Amino acid sequence: MRLLTPALLASAAALSSCATVAPMPVACADLPAALSALKTVRLTSAKEVPADDKGTPAHCQVQGLANERTGLDGRPYAIGFEMRLPVDWNRRFVHQVNGGNDGKIVPALGALPVLPTNALQRGFAVISSDSGHSEDAPANAAAGLAKGNVFGQDPQARRDYGYSANDTMFTVAQALMRQRYGRAPERNYMIGCSNGGRHGLVAASRYGERYDGILAGAPGFNLPKAAVQHAWDVQSWQLANADIRQAFSPADMQLVARHVLARCDALDGLADGIVGDLAACQPKVDIAALQCPGAKTADCLSEPQVRALKRSLAGPRSSAGEMLYSDWSWDAGLGAGNWRFWKLESQIPPWDKLPLIATMGAGSLSYIFTTPPTATAGTPAELLAFLTRFDFDRDAPKIRATSGAFHESAMAFMTPPDVDNPQLSSFRAHGGKLLVYHGNSDAVFSVNDTRRWVDKLVANGGGDTVRFYGVPGMAHCSGGPATDQFDALGALVDWVEQGRAPQALLARVNPANKELPADWSQDRSRLLCPHPQVARYSGGPAESASSFRCVAP
């Protein structure tokens, strides 16, 4: 496992030694000079940013590069980063970890779609990075839609993306806070969703002694396996139609969603457009009941469509029956636009309106998550063809393969080292707390996979360390027919600093969510219950969380 370069270790030690004599706080503009002891770090800007009328506080914004180098593929690499240090600091740090393939420096606000306010607004110092590569580098332009994936041809860039950039960024952030404030933070947090959630679970396993609390949304901790699902989905949809965009119309998927609601909506005591008890729902769903007795009509699904849906949600397998990722749950959000965008069809002309799995997902699987990397042309047609040709006996094992200079497999650099039997030993010994949430209608990562990982951690003695919340109807990280706004960060801070383990979280609808059903009140609220509890209607106003209780299933 690569941690810090010798130069960065030595310079970090030098800064730490200086910190023992309580250095005077450094002005924002002077931070580049003050950080010069970190020989492999170069601050490119440092400026004071005034408060605005949107709640952003006055802060110092620094940007920089770490570990600049030329990769084995001949491309220039560095870990680009941004840190924002508020004037009125609450003595806490948030390591913001980002989604997708990274490759961009997302503003260091400590924001997640589910949070009502971001971490910077609450007084946290926040760092964000591109995880060691830039998708917009000029050298990547010729790769087309795969420009954000080509870094997979460099072993160190893979490693940085998987975990080691976060190692470097933690050290840089600590040095910046010591210089800017003259002291270290009292608490260190990490927050992220999707690939950011994966970063969180990896950090809990690899760097558990560093973080007091980690907020992980929709954690793609088995990301290489989930990428195999992309190929499985494409080949499943092709059973229904050679053009996957036409395999299911929006009306077809809404028919599926209505079937799920008809079988499961009232299981929590109230028919309200929400499947409140996901586990109890699964055996009640029978998609075969939607199959047309004859020709396809608007009121039923064809036999190939039923077969394709069943195959997709059962998850990928080898010809010998080996499970290659996870099964999926039936939920009301399968008829929503976010699910369609990921799985079936986009409205993006440069993608030829193919779904995200067939464009961005295919590039990730070919360049990053299989070894050796496959240089796939970055056109929609070629990326779709890669997934169509993917062989689950021949190609799926490549997520565990090594080759030549690629000494770590995709599963090794992307997943927590103890992914199959989570222990989080150092994190638990440190007293760390992990709050995980996941949309039950997530089209990218299976909520079932996350729930099983949490159950294994609890079985291994981690019950005092983790809380898991499935969010009914919610799509990937947010959206869908769901109450998808809740203060998970506040709950995590209270758990870490006050010892109050989170119970039910109050979730509200986000008025900006365009997929809210028309008959839902804009004031609707619900309880999110810690797994394995579920919310049950106990009587009272149908739109209010106060009318529900969390109970054992």
Descriptive labels:
nine-stranded mixed β-sheet, 553 residues, globular, 13 strands, alpha/beta
Please tell me about this protein's structure.
The protein is of the alpha/beta class. Helix content is 31%, strand content 15%. It is built from 15 helices and 13 strands. The strands form 3 sheets. A 9-stranded mixed sheet has the order 1-2-3-5-4-6-7-8-9, with helices on both faces. Helix 14 links the parallel strand 8 and strand 9 (466-471). 54% of the residues are buried. The model is unreliable at 12-22 (pLDDT under 50).
Question: Short description, anyone?
Answer:
The chain is of the alpha/beta class and 553 residues long.
Strand content: 15-25%
Give the helix/strand class.
alpha/beta
Order of helices and strands: HHEEEEEHEHEHHHHHHHHHEHEHEEEE
**Structure summary, number of beta strands:** 13
Contiguous runs where pLDDT drops below 50 for at least 5 residues: 12-22
Radius of gyration based on Cα positions: 23 Å
> Total number of helical segments?
15
Measured as a percent range, the helix fraction is: 25-40%
Kindly report the average pLDDT value. Answer: 95
